[in-house]
Amino acid sequence: MDTYDLIMRNAEEVVTDEEVRELADDPAGKRAYVGYEPSGVLHIGHLLTANKLIDLQEAGLDVVVLLADVHAYLNGKGTFEEIRDTAERMKAQFIAYGLEEDKTEFVYGSSFQLEEDYTLDLHELELSTTMNRAQRAMAELQSGETAKVSHLVYPLMQVLDIEYLDLDLAVGGLDQRKVHMLAREELPELEYDARPCLHTPIVADLTSGEGKMSSSEGATISMEDSTEELEEKVNSAFCPPTRDPEGDLENPVLELFEYHVFPRFETVVVERPEEYGGPLSYEAYDSLADDLESGELHPADAKGTLASYLDELIEPGRRTLRELRAES
Amino acid sequence: MDTYDLIMRNAEEVVTDEEVRELADDPAGKRAYVGYEPSGVLHIGHLLTANKLIDLQEAGLDVVVLLADVHAYLNGKGTFEEIRDTAERMKAQFIAYGLEEDKTEFVYGSSFQLEEDYTLDLHELELSTTMNRAQRAMAELQSGETAKVSHLVYPLMQVLDIEYLDLDLAVGGLDQRKVHMLAREELPELEYDARPCLHTPIVADLTSGEGKMSSSEGATISMEDSTEELEEKVNSAFCPPTRDPEGDLENPVLELFEYHVFPRFETVVVERPEEYGGPLSYEAYDSLADDLESGELHPADAKGTLASYLDELIEPGRRTLRELRAES
């Protein structure tokens, strides 16, 4: 796969394609990032963007993981020391998951977000951004009664992070697009460059195929899951024999194959007894999806296979988590 | 005048009276402040609060003058160096006007407002304050289209200044009351103490007696005014022979006597030729106002007297300004 295709794989959108092509032409030394609020256990939301970071490393870019400890602190996630412990656990899991340690820079927000220059630039951004514009960049639109002033300031901090981390590409889930578009508008106000951005898709809820698989509600997949839990969750997943279920529904089993499994394995083998047709082997997502559509691959076999590949992906991180817990 | 009366003189309101009484009982080492955005020339708005600071010094309090250079910088008033020059000129005028140099601490905003602890506390305040609450504290209510994010953040910085300057009393014009009330609500959210506040009245527009005398529109009085300019402005001022003109109008000539002249002079003498009744002498504002009401004191004589006392008040600052300009 060429550099451009690797960068673009499974991206839901990039802004702009032209800028990403330029990056692909000369990826060496270019810096891409995702920001995470430190959390003890990686879940599917982290893994989706982590897969993209692994692609980008493979494409020759340097990867920056922002550990947003200042936000965690402000959100009441403990003292800075406690948050740092959590973040170090998270970091170990990212590496176990497959991020190359020597090509990944883990940066704490507190190492630059409280410095004088940053703070002054933040105040400049606050002055150049209308309340309405900042409100439109909030993750979820809230009214003035429930929204806090911080809901307007945080997006501006994310805008500045892109400059202060000296990035060439901002990566995030689709829910980050509003902030990244704000960054493209606002960074030039401070005479900084606008940067391209890349957004990963949203995986649908595992059991219903609706909306978004999240760590806060419904079934999700995390590094804490045992092999058995994983099997149980995947086996009860929504998986009609089609890529495109009715209405707004999605097929989360296929999505997990597409976004999580195929990018990380050259070949995906469906173990199947000879009496049911014997093993199937796929080198690309599309052939697996075609077989599910045609009936050649039964949803139950697809689920069993998915569970076992996810288990393999998660196992090193799960082990790391266990070791770290044993130490503490 | 006892300490409490001196603190309260010409105050439009204090919050709360009980807290101010406590301050008055033991004023030594207590710190009161006003914040100003550095400006080259003191005008009536500065002088009104400066009069109060002089009262407070006389009452035994220490006085802190915040030179808000960060805000001036963000408002495009020049580089930090240029703003510092402006602020130093302002400082010299305050001292020439009557602030006691060794009882006045001049503090630059940039000396603490960009530090890590302050910034982190500011983010905490942003998180504990709803957008609506912060909007209600803005100097002028603006809509989301015109209001900038900074309009919500600045009041929160003023709130924190009160803590970081270790103040016991926040002083400002009536236009600061909303911010000071916000401070009383929000400082305890960060486990800091709420502080009492004191607000000076608004002087009406000189020529119309309506609204507010401001430096930006209409006639105002500043340290730049020559004796002749001052005479001309005061002579064309609105001055009906009453304390309480019709409707919403005020008598700005009487207000200037009350808030500016009487606090600074023990006796006010109206020079008047023998043929018009000879000189009049007042030790209190009320007797002068009574005489204006009764017709004993003619508005033209009141104006002439006001101009000459204001001139005396302004002269040292005007000289300082001239000297500083000659140097640069």
TrEMBL record, chains A, B:
Record-linked Gene3D superfamilies: HUPs, Tyrosyl-Transfer RNA Synthetase
Motif ('HIGH' region): 38-46
Entry annotated with the keyword Cytoplasm: yes
Positions occupied by motif 'KMSKS' region: 212-216
Location within or outside the cell: Cytoplasm
Enzyme class: ligase
Residues noted as binding L-tyrosine in the record, renumbered to the chain: Y33, Y154, Q158, D161, Q176
InterPro entries named in the record: aa-tRNA-synth_I_CS, aa-tRNA-synth_Ic, Rossmann-like_a/b/a_fold, Tyr-tRNA-ligase, Tyr-tRNA-ligase_3, Tyr-tRNA-ligase_arc/euk-type, Tyr-tRNA_synthase
The protein's assembly and partners: Homodimer.
Name of the protein in its database record: Tyrosine--tRNA ligase
Lineage, opening ranks: Archaea, Methanobacteriati, Methanobacteriota, Stenosarchaea group, Halobacteria
Gene: tyrS
